[in-house]
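Section 4.2 – Deliverable D4.2 (structural model, holo form)

The reporting period included a commitment to supply a predicted holo structure for the target in complex with heme C. Inputs used:
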Amino acid sequence: MKVLVRLVVVVVVIAAAGLIFLYSGTYNVSAMVPHNKVTLWIINTLKDNSIEHRSDKITAPNDLNDSSLVRIGFVHYREMCQGCHGAPGIKPSEIGQGLYPHPPNLAHSAKEMPASELFWITKNGIKLTGMPSFGKTHSDDKIWAIVAFMEKLPYMTSDQYNEMNKLTKNESNM
Ligand code: HEC
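Output (structure tokens):
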């Protein structure tokens, strides 16, 4: 019985400490100050496992190398992604620079992540990060085109990006 009472006391004290912390305003939510290591570990572990689990059953279409698909993806990327993520030879905009977490360089992401994860993230977005969901406004076909383009990013120079920019200057993503 004594053990049970002690256990209840410990739980109540931890809960009270948690509530005091939540209401005290101690935690700094400023986007200019990074999370501490523990918070970061919790968020990243939750996020990485969620994305891995949810993209598990997605299979990419066979034609991700198709140049017309890559071209469609490029036009979408230029209009919707470049501002936050930047592009070969192009820095992120002021909005992109001010976001925390920072929008990563997608050339690195495309090397590290399978196409299924790139697709899932682009379609669903990521809560509380500034990464929007494009699934509300774009069909799966268009999102695969964006993925097809992202897969080319790691091998693309700024000259090649400029060239595509010129070639497609009158094309919009609608
Ligand atoms: C308003 C800013 C914003 C826009 C626009 C945006 N993103 Fe993001 N994106 C982010 C942020 C911030 C993150 C980082 C999220 C995190 O760290 O959990 C992110 C993360 C990602 C990731 C995960 C990369 C990784 O290495 O973890 C992918 C893939 C991605 N974005 C793709 C896209 C694509 C494709 C587009 C355009 C269709 C796009 N994003 C447009 C802000 C943006």
